């Protein structure tokens, strides 16, 4: 069992401050590592609260405490790296989706998928009485492709052809 775990019960939060108490009045950090032989606190006083100095004291006098602080830092470092990797995964998968969009294969004209979308569009044109030219609008086409990149918006002529039925 690591020293840090025994003190805090949470190994991952182990910092050098698990072993020191800072005294504002003295402006010194007091070592609270228990000496296993005597059962008393070390109580060594280190000027200031620079973690580097405190770690140096642990390294020199309390090997086990020093090791657990190092482990704690290492684990935090790993967690940070893992989070960065996760973000990168998301970015990669988004790129893949983007790639798929760019290399899109459209629904074949006449396929159920294509026809159901085209019929909905015909219904929209009829029901809203909007000009048939509207379907040639670039922004409208972009809107459609943002909903379903595989749907190739029929042009005005194709739509008129449908309206005749
Ligand atoms: Zn000490």
Shape: rod-shaped
Query: Helix/strand-derived class?
Result: mainly alpha
Strand order of the largest sheet: 1-2-3
Ions, cofactors and other bound molecules = zinc ion
Count of β-strands? 3
Number of folding domains? 2
What summary fits the major beta sheet? Answer: 3 strands, antiparallel
Overall pLDDT, averaged?
A: 78
Low-confidence stretches: 8-13
Terminal CA distance: 80 Å
Sheet-strand content, in percent, reads: 5-15%
- The percentage helix is 55-70%
H and E order = HEEEHHHHH
How many DSSP H or I helices?
6
- What Rg is obtained from the alpha carbons, in whole angstroms? 34 Å
Could you explain the architecture of this structure?
- The protein has 165 residues and is mainly alpha-helical.
- The chain folds into two domains: 73 residues, no CATH class; 52 residues, no CATH class.
- It is 56% helix and 7% strand.
- The chain has six helices and three strands.
- The protein has a three-stranded antiparallel beta sheet with strand order 1-2-3, with helices on one face.
- Helix 2 packs across helix 3.
- The chain starts with a helix and ends with a helix.
- About 4% of the residues have low confidence.
- Bound molecules: zinc ion.
- Zinc ion binds next to helix 2.
